[in-house]
Amino acid sequence: MSDATNDASTPGTYVEPGQEYTRDTNYIEDRITQDSRDGWPVEAGRYRLIAARACPWANRTVISRRLLGLEGAISLGLPGPTHDSRSWTFDLDPGGVDPVLGIERLQEAFFKRTPDYPRGITVPAIVDVPSGKVVTNNFPQITLDFATEWTAFHREGAPDLYPERLRDEIDDVAEVVFRDVNNGVYRAGFAGNQKSYERAYDRLFSRLDWLSDRLEDQRYLVGDTITEADIRLFTTLARFDAVYHGHFKCNRQKLTEMPVLWAYARDLFQTPGFGDTIDFEQIKKHYYVVHSDINPTGIVPAGPDPRVWLTPHSREDLGGRPFGDGTPPPPPVAGEEVPAILAA
């Protein structure tokens, strides 16, 4: 996520000296729904999801889209792993231009919606292709709507990621995971004073201990199948050792030193739709290059070795049905693959 300014060469500022980090959670809250309540109807081929591989919030939407089989209904645009203070850019595409939207910067879609849009130009964002306007960047709602509003375009065998009977529990778990873990690592990493950092650090590891206890005897966070709650936790765990442990000083333990959470994370990583959305090189490049006020040298770590993610986890011994009454998704569509991790 970036600060929106008019200077394309200036890096963003992420740490305010002396201040506690507070995330701006004011997003464009329009929804794409079956009843078109906000003027945006569910319509295959009309919208484009912009979701950088590096970003954990965007990663959620890519996983959900994969599991539900929405690739044919919602196209995917992939910005590069780095951005300046102005916007995410499409530097991975030929000529640095998104091939569907015809823009170099995601900022252009925000400006078509609201000229001189004053907030951060963030991913994930969904863009209306005909108008070129951003529809929403409200990442918590996007995946819920994928699960509940886009059902007409779900693949055969798509799992129920937000089962109605479990929604209250999923919401409760997701709320504390966001506060203490998903956003907690940022509150530690972007803290501008020692006390703020230590508060965030303590809350993070207390919550990870709580999650470890919860997952010791059950395979998934809520119920016996993969749900929205697991997707939301996974994208933080996938980045923990590569980024948050060192770069954000979340260093009581590595994920690999927390046996239950490490086995849980590997279980999900090895499940189709999860690990095949993860690009560790893009993840590391984003954090260590973009956050220049934390890592002024711009040096990107060589490790850790990603092959550890392929080691056995034995979580299947706890039972559970990953996709419920559904089936695993097929392999990623052409052009959406990530580099494979080769076993040692």
TrEMBL record:
InterPro entries xrefs: Glutathione-S-Trfase_C-like, Glutathione-S-Trfase_C_sf, Glutathione_S-Trfase, Glutathione_S-Trfase_N, GST_Omega-like_C, GST_Omega/GSH
Biased composition (Polar residues): 1-12
Positions in coiled-coil regions: none
Domain of life per record: Bacteria
Pfam families: GST_C_2 (PF13410), GST_N_2 (PF13409)
Domain named GST C-terminal: residues: 160-287
Region (Disordered): 1-23, 311-344
Name used for this protein in its record: Glutathione S-transferase C-terminal domain-containing protein
Originating organism: Frondihabitans cladoniiphilus
Source species taxonomy: Bacteria, Bacillati, Actinomycetota, Actinomycetes, Micrococcales
